[in-house]
Amino acid sequence: MRTITVPLTLINLHDDGFHLLVEIVVFGKKCFAVLDTGASRSVFDVALIKNNISELAYTEETQATTLFATSSTIQATIPKIKMGRLIIPDYETVALDLESVNQAYDQMGHPMIAGIIGSDVLLKYQAVINYKKLKLFLYSE
After folding, report:
1. pLDDT higher than 80, residue 59
2. Beta bridge partners of 138
3. Which of 16-20, 55-59, 77-81 has the lowest mean pLDDT?
4. Looking at domain 2-140, which of 3.40.640.10, 2.40.70.10, 2.60.40.3140, 3.40.50.11030 is its CATH number?
5. Which among 65, 78, 77, 79 has a CA at the least distance from the CA of 120?
6. How far apart (Å, rounded) are the C-alpha atoms in residues 24 and 84?
7. What is the pairing mode between strands 18-26 and 29-35?
8. What is the chain's mean pLDDT, rounded?
9. Structural domain boundaries of the chain?
10. 59/130 Cα distance (integer angstroms)
11. Distance of CA 110 to CAs 2, 19, 33, 67, 68, Å?
């Protein structure tokens, strides 16, 4: 089993807590995602998905629950997600509208996010978060 170390960025939500951001590569572009241990699964911004994937499935179910609210969802397959040296192929995702989150981040001077990395990915790769060192440790075979 190999250990993959990924740097994290801690952002201050102006006296309303903190979020951890992780740099990912999706559709060949570097971007940030929120690391959310309370999210049942990882999700990606609907605009990112619509701009890069032509085959989409629409659903009324809101199975993707995160700390961010949503009303409708789109299902799609992302060909490849990279986090550090970890490559996640053919990731089945749900797309949510993260525009309001990105607007809030922009107002606070933080980078926009492309998605939220949730417990499905964190559990699969036995994630360990080291807050002191701001590192995410993932384990892959």
Report:
1. no
2. 4
3. 55-59
4. 2.40.70.10
5. 65
6. 7
7. antiparallel
8. 90
9. 2-140
10. 36
11. 32, 11, 12, 18, 17
Q: How confident is the model at residue 140 (pLDDT cuts 50, 70, 90)?
A: very high
Output the CA–CA distances (angstroms, integers) from residue 112 to 106, 127, 132, in the order listed: 7, 23, 24
Show the beta-strand stretches assigned E in the chain.
2-12, 18-26, 29-35, 43-45, 57-59, 73-83, 86-96, 113-117, 128-130, 135-140
pTM higher than the cut 0.85: yes
Per DSSP, the three-state class of 105 is helix
Angle at 24 between CA 130 and CA 16, to 5 degrees: 55
Structure tokens at 99: 């525009």
Strand partners, 56: none
- Residue 93 in contact with residue 118, Cβ under 8 Å? no
In angstroms, the CA 36 to CA 19 distance is 8
